[in-house]
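> Could you send the Poly [ADP-ribose] polymerase prediction when you get a chance?

Sure thing. Input:
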Amino acid sequence: MERFIETGASEAAFQILEILQYYLDISLLDKSPSQSEIMKYGNLQKETPLIIFFQKQQNYQNILMAIQNLQRDYDILGLKLTESSLLQRQIDQFSLLQIEEEKQLVSIPRENQIQEFSKEDQDLIDIYGDRIKFVEWYFENNDVIQRQALQRQKQKEYMRANINQIHQILPKNFKFFNEVGYQCLSPEQSKLIENVYQEYLTKGGLQETFIQSGDDIYSIRFQQELYQKNQGWRIVNSISQIGRELFRKIKLKGPFQKQKTVRFYLINPLNNNVLEEITDLAIIQNLKKAYETVQIKNKEKTQVLQFRGEKVILYLNPQALHDIKLLRLDGTGIYTLLPKTSSTKWDYVATFKPTARLSIQSGQIYCKELLQSTSLEYQFVQQKFISTFHDNRIRQQSSLNNQINAAQLKPNILRIEKIYNCVIYERFVNEYKRMLRKYTNLQPSQILKHLFHGTKETQPQLIYESETGLDIRFSRKGLYGEGVYFADNSAYSNTYCSKTTCNESQMFLALVLVGDSVYQPQNQSIRIPPLKPISRTDRYDSINNGQGGHYIIYDNLKSYPGYLITYKSY
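Output:
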């Protein structure tokens, strides 16, 4: 305590001093805390170790960084600070002391050990069932995070003591839960632990398994008595008997995609307070492009751009992406920007869920929505369409068939319309649910694909206005018989596009349930997929032509005409 007082070092030191005083009063002097102290610091059991008490504080990360700063600047641990060569030794010693203490502790159970889902996620589970749940197991490894923070201090790089910035320097297999760092076990290890955990839930008693990491063997034991004793599940080193908290997290894997959005905020570098959000679209576009480039290439980047009516130099360091600098050319100052990333989930299937006004009873079963070019769905369809329009496989086929060489065409998307049809949607979703239940060995992305389809002489509105959609009854005999044909590239479907009265080209990007698909050689007599081996009734769901990227279905249940693309080729 004397060392804290001697520093006279800002508010952080006195906050730490207050917490220490409270801890000593309760744990050593048996004083009774006041109600205001309990509300401020929380309940404290006498046997609670100091590091755990610190971790329970709402501003734990600020406390930790403050201690590290005080150690560096004022030698609060009593280690002599002289030559720069000793600085690393001090920091390493402090880190090791903390790591070893953490390893010996029995940690406090997290409130979200029993995971609750958001309404958005629960809606997805209600639609697709438990099949889309994916379990990951994590173990507490907070010392790695602290080492990273200390490493950044050692390199004298500025880092604010904020949990959001620490997130950005973590390895991909690390996550924060309740401001404590956890490392994800491998998929194989997670699956093994989950199987034993489910056995414990079913049978009770003691269920145990072992995993290996390097030369170490770890045991995981599930038993009600152990859970109550340790206040949570533990992963224990079989040699040292050091245990760490084990954390179970359920993620959803299904027909959806996450959209990450980055926003940039101007901050006051003196106190880290946000001054304002950057809203200028031109500046945001330049910042996003530079930010993403540095993330991908992992190299520093400088760029001159306009900011607030003047030219500034943008500087991005891949090791400090939380700290973006804009340097004024006249040398009079620096702007500091803070990027914040958020993500939203886009469901490939539920996005077509019709509104209440569409119903077979009302007689209005369909409607269209014109997508905005800035929307995620528009960009998703656009990318698939443009990137596959010059497919090499189709150039070869086109030259053989004396058709227009796709390489000479430049597509220009005029509009993308999203199709809602309550009858086709209900039938399609039910078929998808059936497949998810049936094919537990297949990922949802293997069962459902986005594929292109050209309707040739049939006008698209006759398809999306109907109750059957892409109807097998109107199909013509092709190289694989009488089926509905789809391609994974727009180049092929362009040769089968329909035309509007304005000579515009149109094709669908459809959702197709290829399910368990099988390669077959060309055969114009095919009317139904072949039987599976050793079965007299179970058939494959679709046929494909291998590397050609074509899929053929033979019923009306397995496709949804999701997006109508209108374009011109020049």
